[in-house]
Amino acid sequence: MASSNQTKLAIGFMLLASLALSMTARAEQKETLGDWDVHYIAFNSTFITPDIAKHYAIVRSKYNGVINISILDKQTQEAQSAVLTGTARNLLGVSKKLTFKEISEGDAIYYLAVLPFSDQETFRIAVDINDGANKQVLNFQHKFYAE
Prior knowledge:
With about 150 residues, this protein is α+β, with helices and mostly antiparallel strands.
């Protein structure tokens, strides 16, 4: 039975990841950094189902955002493993550390970080990406809304 639940969770997360990537494709939230295509999206944690949130230890709240990043080799489009660290600085200059968790599902690798926010809070986000051989910085801005 546990295997069936794990399969359901994996499928659910892959659907979430597909949604995130399709939203990314529409919004063109992709940066080419060196040899990588870095796809990123920020969204409210309430978009994640309770089962998936529990499985990945994400607290669902209208005041928690999730940052989802995937790194692909620019030539082969294969998922890349790296170490991600980052900060989110609001417009008042208050900085919050981002802690990313690597999620591997089949050939896909995603990095998730939870970011607490206030309604209509805008963050300038900087993520350091390091695979041991290459280092790049992804910068973007996102405004979160409580739902």
